[in-house]
Design brief:
homodimer, 321 residues, alpha/beta, Rossmann fold, four-stranded mixed β-sheet, four-stranded parallel β-sheet, 15% strand
Chain lengths: 321, 321
């Protein structure tokens, strides 16, 4: 397949190949580049990073992630207000097959200590049905409501996707991968679980689906600028320095970045996971390290909610009146 | 229940009651006000409109709708780009039990003529499985893909909700109303229908759920300003003029508004539907009249997509090479 790409590039006498994408795309660039070397064809191939999953190794973060994270955080900030008005259990299912960065972004929807999400489940930690129910019950008893963020890719102790454990009826792609997106199934199944076992009546779920990776309405300006700059750097390395590789983003302050060129073979097909210091001990929430990491990526003008803090009026009527 | 509210208001010597909400809320205000009149209690009650459904009679539109519409339009604008990259059938399920205004807002996600949504189904027109499949097939054959916006409240010719027609397994509330939100069921069922009958492989759906009514990240500034102004007007009518009622918004230009006081009994429990000139003859899309109506409500800074329009390169290699 990648050989076909090279054939077309050669036929058109194309000497520069810039390819935008995530892990698999960087692998495509690697193979096309190998084909060029085998053919002793004067050729420069550069992978330009872009993935909302934020799972490229050697990069502090990837373009696309900041805006998707802003979407997820804004969504939970809003859902939190909705759920305060109409209490119950709310489960938001967020994209992420192997890495929990996007699901973790839900934490930035919190402002006040009792705001949701109260629980965050990422694929880096095994998901247990019993702990989940215990966690939800505890939060519900404490807050009178419970907001949960859960990654579509959560797996059990043996690494099996929860969605295939909760039901037999799943779609598989050509590689036998379970189809995780484009269905509300995981959310519905978790809702049923909470309703059945905890006897809570108002249990709702949303599956964020394609909105989180494509929403035009809340782009992070930081993310937008960096997305442009990784492209410019790619052009510099290819045209000025005659080099191949993959562009990475390095954080150099709070908050500034620098760009580096990595070897394609060091990046291709590898997956970065949430580091341990970003996940709490119980495996059901994030740490302040993560909040500190993510905040600048959300960009400027990030919306915050407010509360009226008038004094409480004392009760005049008793309920039996 | 409304009597209880009045009892509490009286016990606290509360003389003004401002209540924010939609049709049912205006009815609450009406009944509480009646209780006050029966008791000859000096009292002013005003309903302040707020509903994303945009279905209050006598109002050009309602606060809340502009921002929710902006969310829905931005979502479809993004989904359209995603679907152009990975073609197939996409079905977005939008809130709206009886009125299609919010689903119709998806139309403002289009920029170029071949952009989605290609089909929009609102509860004002009966939904037929056969016409739906015919419409999707036609769009898919024409564009190589098809984006559909569908209201959760679509009904068949007899006025039965499609979700209960497509499956037996639905949740009902205390009043016997079918639970439409908080489940991805309608989207999944329509996907199955398209997959089974049209043999299209890539068929996906999103149910916008609670995000569309609570998302903090893309508030319309026009909507925000008007939401504040209806509240101010309510205070004016109650404090300065000693009047009860419900505030309505009248459009006076392109684009300015005026506020009026309506009788509570003229607004309470009534539902405004999409007018006929907003829906096309086939009942599967909106008209330019609707686009003209909605555009100013989305506010300033509404995002638009762009396309690179480089000339097409001629083919050098044939596929059999």
């Amino acid at each position: 397949y990648c050989k076909e790409i090279f054939k077309v590039l050669k036929a058109h006498d194309v000497r520069y190949f810039f390819y935008i994408g995530g892990n698999d795309s960087s692998d495509t660039v690697r193979i096309v580049n190998e084909q060029a070397q085998l053919a002793e064809y004067e050729f420069r191939a550069i992978h330009i990073p872009k993935t909302i999953d934020n799972d490229l190794v050697l990069s502090d973060h990837t373009p696309g992630y900041g805006s998707a994270a802003r979407f997820v955080a804004s969504a939970f900030a809003g859902v939190n207000l909705d759920n305060r008005a109409l209490p119950g259990v709310y489960i938001g299912v967020v994209m992420g097959r192997h890495a929990g960065f996007l699901t973790a972004a839900s934490a930035l929807g919190q402002k006040y200590p009792d705001d949701g999400p109260h629980l965050i489940y990422m694929p880096e930690r095994p998901f247990s049905r019993d702990s989940f129910l215990k966690d939800v019950k505890k939060a519900y008893d404490h807050y009178g409501r419970c907001i949960v963020a859960v990654s579509e890719g959560i797996v059990d102790e043996e690494g099996k996707p929860m969605i295939s454990k909760l039901t037999k009826n799943v779609e598989r792609d050509a590689h036998g991968n379970v189809q995780l997106s484009g269905t509300g199934m995981l959310g519905d199944l978790l809702c049923d679980l909470v309703r059945d076992k905890l006897k809570i009546k108002r249990v709702r779920s949303d599956t964020f689906g394609y909105l989180q990776r494509s929403f035009l309405g809340c782009v992070s300006d930081v993310d937008q600028r960096e997305a442009r700059e990784v492209g410019e750097r790619a052009a510099h390395y290819a045209l000025w320095y005659n080099l191949d590789g993959s562009i990475s983003i390095q954080r150099t302050g709070y908050y500034s970045v620098n760009y580096q060129l990595e070897k394609l073979s060091d990046v291709a097909r590898k997956t970065r996971h949430m580091p341990d210091n970003f996940i709490n001990a119980e495996g059901n929430n994030v740490t302040d390290d993560f909040r500190y990491y993510l905040r600048p990526l959300l960009g400027s003008g990030y919306p915050v909610s407010h509360r009226l803090r008038a004094p409480k009026v004392s009760k005049v009527l008793r309920t039996e009146d």
